[in-house]
Fold:
Amino acid sequence: MIIRPLAAFAFLIMSLGASLAPETSYAAGINLIRDAEIENNIRTFATPVFQAAGLDPDAVNIYIVNDDSLNAFVAGGQNLFINTGLIMRSASANQIIGVIAHETGHIAGGHLSRLKDAHSRSSVPALLSYVLGGAATLATGRGDLGAAIVAGGAGTSMRSFLNYTRGQESAADHAALSLLDQTQQSARGFMEFMQILEDQELLSSNNQDPYVQSHPLSSERIRTIEHHVETSAYSGRETPPAYVEMQARMKAKLAAFINSSGRTLRTYKETDSSLEARYARSIAYYRKADLDHALPLIDGLLSERPTDPYFIELKGQILYENGRLQDALPYYQKASDLLPNSALIRSLLASVQLGLEDEKLIDPAIENLRFAIAKEPQSPGIWRQLAIAYGRQGKKGESSLALAEEALLNGKPDIAKYHGGLAERLFKNGSREWLQSQDILLAVVDLERRLKAGK
Structure:
């Protein structure tokens, strides 16, 4: 399955090796969506919980899985995966926070020991490949793309690693309730989520959401959570208005990008003047290439929120995707100025700068890409963009280093060896670049060994 990039979403495509044949619908593919707004909102929800659990929020990676089933899981150490289905079916931000608190309980409780330490240090594609029961080969698309489609093995392989015992589930529940109290948040949303799952227990396993299958339920667990809600001093605590808006905007944005434009426009009717409804309609019309409706809607949102980086980013993307790169540039630049630590937005800005083919913009593009790589060194698409930028400056050595790094992440040792060897010859012995080439060549040997062992 290949998904083309849509507005603020960007996709990095991971294809399945020929030896793997998906055995279940769940294993047919996992799509990791990259979106700065959704990632930042989920992190905003999660940070107080992570801190209360004694975790470094910056050390916990958050990934959004494009799957409409109700699911969330942690794997490979401190990696939290949340399905779009969970976000879109949530009735409140508090429900999402409750799930995050429960999954944080698994991390803090050390319930991930089934994944070997070596895999806990793996890249996300390698981790998902391992969790899903098969090796996958990365095949990148455009250089400005930034999410992943992962195809893997049988769903039973995934569940064998992600299943928890009832004891671990109970421990994670208790941790979640404690964390919510420590952060002075209501556990009511967590209770509501668990009650939804309780109804799922009556369904056949084929119709159950994956969360039920990997997180065994019991009436005792649910009664414990209900009792906590009855007695906690924070059960009546209202969700902050900012969180309410974040959840509504995430649901609208996901619906507009994932569903058909027609369905989005039926859901968020013209008579609905709420901010999130207008947001959804602007995306739906953009996807229909109806800029006569899309641009006035996003302009209206910007007139109300002139410094909202995500509205600004969407305006830039609409212009960019319609070939108006020069018009798009200031919007991406402004979004980057407002969110200077966003590797995703900085890399998207760089793609516009490179797309304009203006020599004056190459150095700024390289600066943005180097920043993005420092934050996300395991993104092949960013390395590819960097290689293009250096190539336009005639810097063959730097370009080869970037191409070699990309090839390593793509699982292509021959290409990595070629470009690593070329860089080794071009740079002075002992220089920083030469040392990087040595690291690459050593990594090639390790990659070849792992690929051979996997055959």
The first helix runs from residue 36 to 52.
